[in-house]
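Morning!

This is the sequence you dropped in the shared folder:
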Amino acid sequence: MQRPLGIMHTVSHDEWGGLERRIFNESQWMSRRGHQITLAAPPGSPLYEKAGAEGWRVLPMGFRRSRMPIDMLRLRRLLRKVRPDVLNTHGNADTKVGLSAALGLGIPCTILSRHVTAPVRSSWYNRRLYRDLCRRVFTTSAAAARQIEKGLGMDAAHILTVPSGIVPPDRLMPREAARQALAQELGRPEKTRFIGSVGRLSPEKGLEYLLAAFAGIAQKCPDHDLVLAGEGRHRAALVACIRDMGLGPRVHLIGHREPLWPLLRALDLKVLASPENEGVPQSILEAMFARCPVIGTAVGGIPDIIGHGTTGLLVRPRDPEELAAAILETITDPGAARRRTAEAHQRAVTSHSIDVMGETILGIYRQVFSEGGGPSQVF
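The structure's back. Tokens below.
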């Protein structure tokens, strides 16, 4: 007889970014197939609130470094009560707490998810977390998997790359209508066109390099404005940077957007200028699906999905001049950009859908259960 799985995620972050969107989308997919979702996360965080609205079980856990022993004991009690079939940890703090709390409880499938490509320090503690306390390590990019394998001396079979899957809309808004709507919203001339960035407003996204690139070409593309979508603690610094560069009314901080599809359809180009440590960014996959041309830096997992000249353009990190040249190339040669977006759209549809991701993860669960005596019948 088939039965649903109990799947518990832990996350220590209190913002809303690609990591949190992946957890939410994956959990929603699993929930719709009958599996029972539990989330342990900081109370009041966007993911915590969204999970509660979905009707999933939510456990308030701050995962603060100063309270780590207390949190571990508390989570251990909760794990004994919930008895999940799967425990998947996602952030540095909640991984340390979660996998330690689960030790000896007989949870059939423990997963450590690593979403970025920042090096993992080869300490005895990290080796124990990655090698001994989890059944598998999930990464979003091949670059992250290679880094962990080499840095911690791990068996490659223990580390699995599972890129995020996109949740497509029922329909995509016509591009021209989306562009005109954005111009009207921002009070810009009807002919205005847009270059955009989507993600947390944080130093890790390299937005200062994007601003510098735009400043260098602003006179060459007078009909284009720059749109930065997202929220974060770096907002005030970006406002000051925009002011100091004299970009004034041509750069727009528009805050968090949900859903993103109308914005992606309004853009002539989506840019990710991260200087380092990216996984496979969900915002790029969504732009590819929306047939929005993409430019990314050649760091982390970005080259996993952007093939230079085939599905987008790649540039060196921390190089505003090269980024500026790629932006100009994209907006001045729309025919080549359309060919790249067609290839990118096809790749997003066939390889990076939420269904592909969900079925891949269920297959991994089944494999782990078969090795360790977990549930033999699952949806």
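Headline: The two ends are 10 Å apart (CA to CA).

More detail when I'm at my desk.
O.
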